[in-house]
Structure formats: C-alpha cells, structure tokens
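Protein: Tripartite tricarboxylate transporter TctA family protein
Species: Nitrincola nitratireducens
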Amino acid sequence: MDIINSFLNHLAIGANEAFTLQNLWYCLVGVFLGTLVGVIPGLGALITISLLLPLTYHLDPTGALIMLAGVYFGADYGGATCSILLGVPGHPAAAVAVLDGYPMAKKGRGGIALFMKSIASFVGSTIGILLLMMFAPMLASAALNFGPPEYFGLMLLGLVAASTVGDGSPIKGLAMMVIGLLISFVGTDVISGVERFTFGFPDLSEGVGLIVVAMGVFAISEVMRSAGSPNIQPINQKFRLRDQMPTREDWKQSFSPIIRGASIGSFFGSLPGTGGGMATFLAYAVEKRVSKNPEKFGKGAIEGVAAPEACNNAGVGTAFIPTLTLGIPGDAIMALLLAGLIVQGIQPGPMVMTNNPELFWGLIVSFFIGNVMLLILNIPLIGVWVRLLSIPYQWLFPGILLFTCIGVFSTHYNIFDLYLLLVFGFFGYIAWLLKLEVVPLILGLILGQPLEENFRRAMLIFKGDLSVFISRPISAIAITVALLLIIWSIKAQFVRKRL
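Structure follows.
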C-alpha cells in the first residue's frame, strides 16, 4: 500500500509540473517540430536536437527536457510518413516501413497505412512509457548503492555495446568510440587542474563542447551530403479522414503484431547499442515468421507496418530507463538528451530522481501528454505533412546551416567554436564517405569524462588496487561482458571478411 501511495504522490508531482501552461507549450513545440523533421527526409531528431541544445541554456530544466524529448518522440512518429509515401525512410528505424508501407500507398491504401502507423506508434509509446514508470524507480534505487567501480564497469559496457552491436563494422565502431574518448580528455584535468591536449590553444582549456561536435558531425555533414539530393514527390492520392479508416479485417490483422512489436521494442530499447533499426527489422521478421501467409509481406501487408512502428516507438520510451537512472545513454539521441541535463547543471544518475523529482516525474507525465498530442497531429493533419514532402531540399539546408552557426556561436560567443564546427563538419562528412559510424564518437565524448572520473576515484579510494574491478560482482560482470563483446566483434569481423 505504501508503494502505491508513493507512486501516486510521484505522479501528482509530475502532473503539477507537466500541466503548467509553460511546459504544455514546450511539449507541443517539441512534438510538432519532431513530427515536422521526421516527415522530411534528411533532417530527423539528431539534427534538430543538436540545433535546439543551445536554446536550453535559457530555459527551465524541466521545460527544456520536455521539448527535446518531444522532438525525439515526434520524429519517430513522423519518420514512417515519408517511408510510406516516398519509399524513402526519414530515419534508420523507419526503413522497415518502406517494405510494406510503400506498396500499400501504391495500391491506394496509403491513408490506411498512415492511420495504422499512428495507432501502432501510440500504443507502442504508451507501453514503453508505462514500463519506464515501473522499472526506472527500482533501477535508480538499486543504483544508489553503486560505487565508482560499478559505474566504471557499466559505462564501459554501455560504450562497448553501443560501438559493437549494430549494422556497421564493430571494429570501426570501437575506433570511433576511442576517438570520442580522446576528444573528451581535451581540456583541464578535473582532479589535478592541469591543462592537457590543448596544443597551445587557450580556447581548448575548457574542452571541446558537445554541442560543437554534435552539430558538426550531424548538421553540417548532413548539409554537405544532401545539398545536391534530388527532390522526390509523394504518391498523389487523397488523405481525407474517411480515406484513412482501416477495415475490420485491418484491425484484426494489426492487433497482435502491435503487441508483439511493442514487446520486442521495449526490451531492445532498454539495452545500450541495440538501436531502433535492429529491433524493427527483428519485429518485422517475427511477423513474417508467425504469419500464415508470409508471401504477402513486401506486397502491402498491414502487419509489416503495424509491428515495426509499435516496436520503434516502444523502444523510445524504454531507452530513457538507463539514461535517466544510470546516466548511461544507449544511442546518440539519448546522449544529446543527457547533454541537455548537463547543460542545466544537473548531474545525470540515480540521484536525479531523488534531488529533482519534479523534473523526473514531470518528464514522464509529459510523455503521456505528448503521446496524445502526436496522435492528434498525425491523423487529422496528415494532409499538411504530405504537402511538406514537396519542399525542395535546396530550400531547407541553407537555413539549417545558418541556425547551426548561430546556435554554436550563442553558447560561448566564441569564434573559435565556429572553426571547430567546420572541422567536425568535415570530419563527419569524411566519416560518412568511409562508412564510419559517428554515434560511438558522440557516446565516447559524453561518457569519457565520467568514465575517467570513476576510474580515478576507484583508484584513490582503493589505493591503486585494480583487482577491485573484478572483486565486486556488478563491475566484474559488466567488464567481462564488455570484453566478450570486443572478442566476439573482432572474431565476427574476420569471419565476415573470409566469406
């Protein structure tokens, strides 16, 4: 009974925070922007959150996180729209929606596919948020007993998992993660106060800012990659509300796939490095496997839209579990949201729930509010989003470039940051040419400093005894799993080359 009362009290705290006019406005702005950039190919949540990060300096912490999280949820809702209507995914996790969503649109059932996509996204998000509410407090409570060795082990595991588990080369992922760690070491040593790796540049004494790196490798490099892209027109058909209504058979065929997809997404969303793309492809494969008519997949099966979309959006909710409770992001977007906390002077980790309950629970309640807002935005206004798809790329990217430069300069009013922005923009473009993932780099930059701090604290507390990392169960398990992942990744790379 006490647990239920405590839970209800926390929800009341969150409701009081989330239902203020200011935070409702931030939530609406976030989900609207997220849907907008999710619909338009080539933008997405990464670029938008990178652009918005400088603005969070001037916002209330809860409002800032609500807006950034709204962008994340909105982009995942909107990403499948261009997959269905253009055959071009708005982000990697929406790529699966092309397989059956685009054939449905070509058959004149694009409105039904978009409607079911919205319903599946809503159900998946709701399940993910409920799991976040249930498990985050328990994990945060357990994490209060963690010491520096445990945090070091878990952060190391998160970095290695995010760098090796995915579609790209695991060795390249590890290399980019190491580069991110090296960049995080630039600046003033937090323990000794000595400057390191500044190479004679006084502007580097405070380190390389995450905002500069993120906006360089995501926004600037995206402009360089996509400036010459041709504009693709959506399929021409009506999208009135009655044209979007699924039949009874459509509902029957979609119900079970939505539940299965949400279950898969919830599990993989909470694991660092697994990524929405891998989980959605798995959800699609499961539906094809359990279907009595697997031959219809790829030709316009509504299950091929419902299951991946439920999976994708459920993973968004549970991805916040390790981010908010342990301060360990599972992907680049979570890393940027974590940076939003750091910008506000809030130390990520289990103490966030204790020291800032109004922020934590206000954020969770706002997820429910944003989810309802997204359902309203995505069904009646689908005609607006369809028309946005006809905007030529060459009109979008000059504005992105301008706002990127303004955002970077406004953080410290330092011209040197613009030079760094250009450097990391070229770096991101070269990484794309070499098929190097930049996500591990961002995670290495985010976790580099806390990883080093916890390692050195452990050495100070235990007088330089390295055995502490293997004598304590949690850190020992985390480090062992990280080493096994590295060995497996190297072995898999060599096997792939032989084949």
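Remarks: The chain has a mean pLDDT of 77.
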